[in-house]
Amino acid sequence: NCVACGRNFSQISALSNHVRTCRFQKKRTASALEGAKEIYRNKKNRVATNQTQTCPGESSQQADVTTRAAIATVGTPNAMDIGSVDDDSLSLAKRRPRRENRPLPKRFQNEQPVALASLPPAAAETLQASNDSTLSTPVVNLERRTLTSPLNKFGLFRRYFSASFPAHDPDTEIQIEELSEVSQYNNSNTLSTSFFEPYPNRSAFLLGEWYWNSGVQKTKEGFCKLINIISGSDFNPADVKKVPWDSLNRRLGESVDSEDVWIDEPDAGWKETSITLPIPFHKNMLNPGLQQYTFPPFCHRSIVSVLKEKMSNQRDFQQFHLEPYELRWQRKDTPDTESTRVHGELYTSAAFLEAHEEIQSAVGEPGCSLPRVLIGLMFGSDGTQLTSFGSTSLWPCYMYFGNESKYRRCRPTCNLCNHIAYFQKLPPEFKDFAELHWGKKGPSDSFMTHCQREFLHAQWKELLDDEFLEAYEHGIVIECCDGKKRRFYLRIFAYTADYPEKILLSSIRNMGNCPCPRCLIPKHRTHQLATRQDQRQRKSLARVDNLQYRVKTSSAHEIIYQKNCSVDSVAIQRLLKPESLTPNENAFSCKLSKFGFNLFSIFLVDFMHEFELGVWKKVFIHLLRILDCVDGAVNELDQRFRSVPTFGRDSIRRFANSVSELKRLGARDYENILQCSIPVFEGLLPKEHNDNLMDVLFTLAHWHALAKLRQHTDLSLDILESITVQLGRLLRKFQEKTCPAYNTRELQRELTSRARKAASKLSTNKTTSKNTSSLPTKTASTYPKKEIKGRLPKTLNLNTYKDHSLGDYVDSIRRNGTVDSYSTESMELEHRSPKSRYLRTSRKHFEKQLGCIERCQARIRRIRQKLDKTKQTREELVHEKGPESWASAYHIGKTQNHPVDLRVFAQEKRHDPAAKDFMKNLKAHLLPRIHSRIQVDPHKFGFENADAAEMAQNMVLIKDNRVYSHKLARFYHTTYDVRRSEDVINPRTSHCNVMLLCKLATSEGNSLDTSVTHPFLYARVIGIYHVNVVYTGPGMKGYESMHFDFLHIRWFQLEAIKSQGRHRVRGWASLRLDRLSFPPMAEKSSFAFVDPALVLRSCHLIPAFSSGKRYSDGIGLSALSRDNSDWKMYYVNRFADRDMTMRYHWGLGIGHMYSHN
Q1: How far apart, in Å, are the Cα atoms of 399 and each of 59, 254, 307, 493, 693?
Q2: Confidence of residue 454 (pLDDT cuts 50, 70, 90)
Q3: pTM given for the model
Q4: Where are the domains of the chain?
Q5: Helix, strand, coil % (nearest 5) of the chain?
Q6: Helix (H, G, I), strand (E, B) or coil at 35
Q7: What is the distance between the terminal CA atoms of the chain, rounded to a whole angstrom?
C-alpha cells in the first residue's frame, strides 16, 4: 500500500507507477526535503565556523608557486607506457583477472560532484593571514590577507586575498542538479497574486509570456503549453477579450525613457544615434578634402545601464561573483606536497586577480568607504545571415559578464548574453557619395576598407561613452538587490571575434607582414611553431599600446586628413607597413590608453576558427589531395567514415555519405573527423608515410582534446605545452618528408570554386563598368568564362596566422582561464536569438525592431521572476523523469514486461557459445553479491552467520526461474571537471561498449598480472537484465527475494605492440591508440556477468579498417552476441570526448577520484 495516501495495490509495478504521481507523496517528499536542506545548511555553517586550519601541505605565505616539479608525483604523460605484457602463450584467464563481483571499495566509488566547501563566516576572528608584503596594502583601512577555505571531498579549495571572507558566496547557492549535465530541468513555478503590470491581469500575462518566450515556430511542446494555459483553473477567457495587445507590446518594447510606473528597476533600453564622419578624399580626386557624411542611425544600449539591470536581478545576482579567488587542488594521496592551481573561470584567473588587486590597492574616492567590485567585461561580435536566401545580415555585438560562471554563461537557456549593439556596415548609398567626389574610376578597395574601419571605431566610441569612462576610472555606485551599495569598476578582459574582425578592431592589416594581433613575429617565421626562438619572440615582440604606437597612428592619420594623401600612399606605407598597422584612430586606444589599457591584450585565441576551421581543416584538405594521388583511396576513406559508429548523445555523430566532398560541414563536423581520423586513414598510404601520418593525426587529436578542456591545472598545462612543441615539430616533418612525395593538386571542388569566382568577378566588372546604361542586360552566364587551365599545384602552407596562434594557448589559459570561456562557439549559439526575432519583424529597418523584441522578452522574464514565489519540488521532477541521475551510479528499469524463462533460454541457445553454462555462471556471479548484501544488514534477512565459505551456489534460487530483460541502461559518472554526465547503453546498437577499472580486480585479491599497466578493462554488453533471487543456505531464516541488476558481457583483450623485443601497451609515448580484439569464444572467460555498478562509463570503439572483418561471409558463430558484423581489431578512441582523454592522463582529472592513489 502507499504510505502517503493509504491506497492498496496488488502488484509492485502498479504501486511504483502510483507513487510517481501521488500528490500526497509529493507533498510529503517536499516537506522532508525542505527539512533536510535546513539541517544541511546549519551543519555546513557549524563546520565552516570550526574549520579554520590551513590545508595539508599548504603554506599561507606562498600565493603563487610553480608546480612543474609536481608532475613527478602523478606521473609523466608516458607513465602508462612503461611495463610489458606477458607472453601470448599464456591463457586469457591468466592474463586477465577473474571477474568476481565484490563490493566496490570506497576509493574506487564514482563520487558525486559537489560544490566548493562553504566559507567560514566573514566576521570570524580566527582567519588565516599571510604576511606577504605584496598583499598587505591597506584598502579602506583594512589589512588584506591570504585566506584559505576548507577543502571539499575532491580536494578543491579557494584562496582569497582580502581582509575577510566575502559575505556573498555564489558557490553556496549551487545545487547538485546544476552540476549535472544529464538533464536541465526547467522548473515551473507558482504565481503569486501581485500585480502583472503592464499586463492588466494574470490571464493576459500568461498569454503574452507564451507568445514572446515560447519560440517563433509552433511546436508540439508549445502547443501543449498553450493548452495547459487556457485549460488552467487560473485562466479566465473574459480577462483577455478587451486587452489592447498592440499598444501593450509597444510599451514592452519602448525605451526606458518612457516614464512607465511599472518599470520599477533599472532597465537598459535601446537607443539610436546618428554618426557623422569626415571622409578624406586625397588631393588627386575630383573634390579633394574632407567631406562630411551622416550614416544611418546606430542601435545600441548603454553598457553601464546593462550593469545596473544585472545588479537588480535577484536570480542573476545570487550567482554573480563579487570577490575573485584562486582555485587550487590538493591531492588526497599527496597531502604533504604543494597544491596545484586550477584554471577555468575568468574570475579565478591571474588577469582578473591582478586587476582586482590593482583596484583594491589604489587610492579610493574621497569620502567613500564602500566595497570595491571588479566587473569583468567580455565582448564578442560576428556577422550572421538572417535568412537562408538573400543577403540580409546582422552584425550584433554581445557582452558577457566574466563574474558569472562559464557553465551558465555559455548556456543559451540561461539568457546571460547581453545584446548591446547592432553594428552598421557602410550603406550602399555611401558608394554613390564616394563616386561623386572620387571621379570616374570610383573609390578604391583600400579607401572603402579604411572608411569601414573608421565607421566601426566611431560606433565603438559611442559605446565607450563618458558614463563608461567614469565607471572605468572612478567606479559607479550601485545599490544591489540585496540592499547594499557597492562601487563597481569596469574592465575589459576579452574580445571574441574571428580573424577578419580582429584585424578591424585591433587596427592591423589583413595578413600583412606581421599578421598576429598579439605580437610582431614576421609572417615568414610563423611556421616555427613552439621552437625556442618562437617562444622567446612571442614575449619580446609582443604588441603594446604605448606612446610609440600612438605616435605612428596619429601621424598617419594626420597625413591622410590634413595633408590630403591617399590611405595607401608611400608615406603611409613607409610608416605603418613594417608593423602591419592601419591609419585609423582605434576607439579602445583613444578612450582607454590613458588608463594603461593595452588594446592588443583582449584579442585572445579563438579555438573554433583557428584550429577546427583553421589548422585542422587545412591539414585534412591537404590529406584529401594526397589521397587523390592514390587510386581508390578517397572512395575507401568515405566508406570507412560511413562505418564509424556514433558515440554519446552528440559527441560523435553519423558522418555524411561522402566526407571527402566537404559539403556543408561545420566546426563540430571537422572536430568529429579529427577524433575518428586515425583508424580511417590507417593503411591508405605506404608504411613510411603512414607512420608519419599516424604521428601527426594522433598529436593533432591529443592537442585538440587538451586545448579544449574546460578545466586545467598547472600539471595539464605543462603537458599541453610539451604537446604543442611536439605538434610543431611533427607538422614540419610531415611537410618536409611526406608532402613532397606526392604531386598534389587542387581538388575538383577547389577547381570548380575557383572557376565560379572567376566568372563572378568577370560578370561584376562588366556590369559595373562606365557607360553601359544603354547596353542590354546580360546575365553572368552570357559572359565568356575566364579560361581555367586545369588543376593548380597545391602544397601544405604552415606560414599562416592560424598555425602561429597555436603557440599562444598555454599562456592564454594560464592568464585568462580555459578557452571555452571566450570561444566564438557561444556567439554562434546566440545567433539563434536574432534570427528567430527577425521573423517577427517587418524586414525593414529591422535593427530597431530587434531591440524592441529583445526588451519585450527580457521584461517578461523579469516579471516572471518577480512573480515566482515557490518552486516545484525537484523530487516531483525526479519522479517524472526517472532516477536521481545526479546521485545514482546507473539506472536500469524495474519493469518485468520482458521475462526470459531460463529453461526455454537454455534449450533454444544450447549451441550458442555465449549461453554456455549460463545458469551456473550466473549463480556464481550472484553468490558474492548476495553475501555482500547480507553482510550490510544480516538481521534484515534473518541470517545468523554471514560466512562466505559456507555459502553454496546450489542454495541460490532464481525466483520463477526467470530473468527480466531491458533495452537500455543509463550510467552516470563524474567528469574530470567535477560535473555529472550520462551514458546510455543499448546492446542492439553500436552504443554497447563499456569500460571498467582494472585496479578494482587487483584490490580485491584477484589473479591480475601486475606487469600490465593499462588501467581499464573493455567489454561489449550483449544483454541487460535483472533477477529476483532467494538464498536458502544454512543460517538463513527469512526467504525474502533480493533484486539484482546484471550485465551479460563479452570481454575484449588488449593487443600489445612489439618494441625493442618486448610487448608494450600502446599509449601516449607510442602515439598510437589502444587496440582490442575479441578472444576465442571457446575460452571459458570470454563471456561473463558484471555488476552494473562496476561500469566506469561507455567507450567508443572504432573498427581497425585496415585489418578487415572477422567473417568475410557475414555469418557469425553466436546470435546472442551478434558477432556476424565483427571486425578483427578495434581501436579505443581515447579522443571521443574530453572526459575520456583525461581518464588516460592518470591522476590529472580532479573528478576522477579513483585515480588519486
Answers
A1: 38, 21, 10, 11, 42
A2: very high
A3: 0.84
A4: 83-110+887-1155, 185-253+846-884, 270-602+810-845, 607-750+794-805
A5: 40, 15, 40
A6: helix
A7: 47
- Tell me the three cell numbers of residue 366: 574621497
Cα 364 to its chain centre, rounded Å, is 39
* Interatomic CA distance for residues 542 and 532, integer angstroms: 16
The rounded Cα 593 to chain-centroid distance in angstroms is 33
Q: Which amino acid is at 1056?
A: A
In this structure, are strands 868-871 and 340-343 parallel, antiparallel, or unpaired?
unpaired
All cell numbers assigned to 656: 555524411
Over 80: is that where the pLDDT of 200 sits?
no
Of 303, 796, 719, the closest CA to residue 527 belongs to 796
Amino acid occupying residue 486 = R
pLDDT tens across 941-969, in order?
666 555 555 567 778 899 999 999 999 99
Contacts (Cβ under 8 Å, ≥6 apart) of 854: 270, 419, 833, 837
CA–CA–CA angle 578, 583, 585 (5° rounding): 130
pLDDT at 776: 42
How far lies 643's CA from each of 197, 889, 1076, 1132, 1146, in Å?
Answer: 58, 31, 17, 15, 31
Contact 807, 516 (CB under 8 A): no
Handedness of CA 998, 999, 1001, 1005 (dihedral sign): positive
pLDDT for 233: 77
d(CA 1136, CA 1139): 8
Cα–Cα distance for residue pair 164/53, rounded to 1 Å: 15
**Residues facing residue 1064 across a β-bridge:** 1057
Write the pLDDT tens digit of every residue in 573-630. 999 999 999 999 999 999 999 999 999 999 999 999 999 999 999 999 999 999 999 9
* Residue 778 banded pLDDT, cuts 50, 70, 90: very low
* Grid cell listed for 892: 536500469
Q: Using N-to-C axis directions, what is the helix angle for 846-867 and 202-213, rounded to 10°?
A: 130
Give the number of other Cβ atoms within 10 Å of residue 41's Cβ.
12
Mean pLDDT calculated for residue range 176-194: 53
Please give the grid coordinates belonging to residue 1148.
Answer: 590529472
| pLDDT tens string 1029-1066 | 998 877 676 778 899 999 999 999 998 776 555 556 67
